[in-house]
Write a structure and sequence with these properties.
628 residues, alpha+beta, eight-stranded mixed β-sheet, seven-stranded mixed β-sheet, 19 helices
Length: 628
């Protein structure tokens, strides 16, 4: 399977994973994502910071001050009637009582409260009772209201009170973290549907009719951006008392400010420690339920609630599918740090976009997208690392294999530039040839295995010496070799290194032959030729290429071995090489010459010098001349 097919399969599997995660969560599974989303929502709310709420609602709190100054909780109905009566006299838009008036009390108190409720626009709270700790949706339900939480029954205010007021269900929906994230707008039992308390209050305050459409609610001509289950997502403006709050004690003291009530929505609710509902929120560990309800009322009236409707859920679905595919695609595009950086940049951009949308009123799901993205990205990255490690092992083995055939410098050069010498290059270089003498005759008399051992030792000696001097063996010619100095690029000391290599080969091979058994070493000799000049370097072959050099310089260096043998010497050097190497003699070696001669296959005269160790007597004293 080629790489493109592998990437395509990975992208398809990633898309299927993302779609599956989104569908499973949307259908009520993967509840752990709700807890994660609640936590991420709290973090986004804190990042957005405290906001000034629209000044539409005043909370009249039955708080600890009321209890401390001689009151009691629950507040007697006669006292509650006094509170409502005082508020009604200040002409509010609507009075919302977030207290469950479901039990009978003293007859006089109940009658007084009932009479007071008839004097103004009032909304009373009811409660939905569910058969379990979780709100349920009947599986057999159909139609636009099928997604509503189905209650077992409703706890409604006493008829004496309900006859003089509107009624709304006050339940809120808490997330996995315990913080209310939404308020249902509609509730149902098996035979009836009730509006929520905030929706009743908002409809009464705005004086606009409510329309229930298949997928949304309308207050007059304005759509209410509810979730798919007709729940209103809420975000908190700040900690408790961010929404204007006054104590009910100010009514008993006669200090209530008319401006806090007139033409406003007034919500009466409990804020007594240990006497009412309290919820944790991002800003406050204990926020009274009356302020949570007031937040929902403010959202409905001001139209500033956060949007989490069908369009947003469609965007969530696309993000759950496309973001993981993009991340996997980036990792596949560059199996390196660049791919990781690009993927990290995309994740940061997505997180920034998600936070930007949240702070501007659009609630994009973060937990589902993370669950859709992280596993396939982690798996693919792990596979990439594993494949990369396998590839590194392969390339390392290939590099070691290549090193057996190419000099390290050329090997590194080919790795950086695969087209090295694809076009022939003309340059100056030094060429060294070495060859064993009388090897052919010896090979006829000894065992092939022993002969192989001799050749292998000879080749190892040449290879080590050439590498130590920075040369490149372009070819082994059976019992000889050609060594090139000047690749991968010409260097000023090419001639000097070639001269050193020639001398080291002379000494090394001489010692090696001396170490052989006399029957073998006594029959072997060697000859070396070295020259410096222009060459043509290139790559030859098709499927199996090799680097080579040709030209007059190569021919001269090869023929110098014959000149050395003809003059009873082992190392022949041209004056061109010595001049290029800036050689002026050495205390441990002797140069004899010069010899002006012709070489086979070439017209013109070549100036040749012969080198030997100082302790080796000259075999041709007539031509010897010491060069200091």
């Amino acid at each position: 399977m080629n790489r493109r097919v592998q990437i395509l399969v990975a992208l398809v599997l990633t898309a299927l994973w993302g779609a599956g995660i989104f569908a499973a969560h949307a259908n009520g599974h993967l509840r752990f994502l709700d807890r994660l989303e609640a936590t991420l929502t709290d973090l986004r709310t804190l990042a957005r910071g405290v906001q000034r709420p629209p000044d539409l609602v005043t909370i009249v709190a039955i708080d600890d001050t009321v209890v401390k100054r001689g009151g009691s909780y629950p507040l007697p109905r006669a006292d509650l009637a006094r509170v409502v009566d005082t508020i009604v006299q200040f002409k509010p838009k609507v009075v919302a009582i977030d207290l469950l008036l479901v039990d009978r009390s003293a007859a006089i108190g109940d009658a007084t409260l009932a009479h007071t409720l008839a004097t103004g626009p009032v909304v009373l709270a009811a409660a939905a009772i569910f058969p379990s700790a979780h709100e349920t949706v009947a599986s057999s339900s159909d139609g636009p209201l099928a997604a509503l939480p189905q209650a077992e029954r409703f706890l409604l205010p006493l008829p004496a009170f309900a006859d003089h007021a509107d009624v709304g269900v006050v339940n809120v929906a808490t997330g996995q973290s315990g913080s209310p994230l939404s308020v249902p707008m509609l509730f149902r039992t098996h035979d009836k549907v009730e509006l929520s308390f905030p929706l009743r209050v908002a409809s009464r305050a705005l004086g606009k009719p409510l329309t229930i459409a298949p997928d949304h609610l309308m207050l007059g001509d304005r759509a209410v951006p509810t979730d798919s289950d007709f729940a209103l997502p809420i975000t908190y403006y700040g900690p408790r008392r961010t929404i204007r709050t006054v104590s009910a004690q100010s009514i008993f003291d006669g200090t209530l400010d008319r401006a806090a009530i007139e033409n406003r929505i007034v919500v009466i609710g409990a804020a007594v420690a240990g006497g009412g509902d309290f919820y944790p929120t991002p800003f406050d560990s204990l926020m009274p339920g009356v302020e949570v309800v007031s937040t929902a009322i403010t959202h409905l009236v001001a139209g500033d609630s956060i949007v989490r409707d069908r369009k947003v859920h469609l965007a969530d679905a696309l993000a759950a599918i496309l973001l993981p595919m993009l991340l996997v695609g980036l990792l596949a595009w560059r199996r390196s740090a660049l791919g990781l950086i690009a993927a990290a940049a995309v994740m940061i951009a997505w997180a920034g976009l998600n936070l930007f949308a949240f702070t501007h009123g659009v609630w994009l799901n973060a937990a589902t997208t993370l669950a859709a993205a992280m596993p396939p990205v982690a798996i693919f990255a792990g596979v990439q690392l594993w494949a990369g490690d396998r590839r590194r092992q392969y390339l390392t083995a290939k590099s070691r294999s290549l090193a057996q055939f190419q000099a390290p410098a050329v090997q590194e050069w080919l790795a950086r530039n695969p087209n090295f010498l694809a076009t022939p290059v003309r340059q100056d270089a030094a060429i060294v040839f070495i060859d064993l003498s009388d090897f052919t005759a010896l090979s006829e008399r000894i065992d092939p295995g022993e002969l192989q051992d001799i050749l292998e030792a000879f080749h190892v000696l040449i290879d080590k010496t050439s590498v130590d001097c920075g040369g490149m063996i372009t070819s082994f010619l059976g019992d000889g070799a050609m060594i090139l100095f000047g690749l991968p690029g010409a260097m000023p000391d090419d001639a000097a290194r070639a001269l050193k290599c020639s001398i080291d080969l002379h000494r090394g091979v001489e010692r090696w032959i001396a170490s052989l058994p006399p029957a073998i070493g006594g029959q072997l000799g060697f000859k070396i030729g070295a020259h410096f000049g222009p060459i043509i370097a290139s790559r030859l072959g098709e499927s199996h290429q090799h680097i080579t050099a040709n030209g007059d310089t190569v021919n001269v260096a090869s023929r110098l071995m014959e000149v050395a043998a003809q003059n009873d010497a082992r190392l022949a050097l041209t004056d061109t090489l010595l001049d290029a190497a800036d050689f002026h003699g050495a205390p441990d070696g002797v140069l004899t010459g010069p010899l002006l001669t012709q070489v086979r296959g070439r017209s013109g005269i070549v100036t040749v010098w012969f080198w030997r160790d100082q302790d080796r007597p000259s075999q041709d004293a007539t031509r010897a001349e010491m060069i200091d």
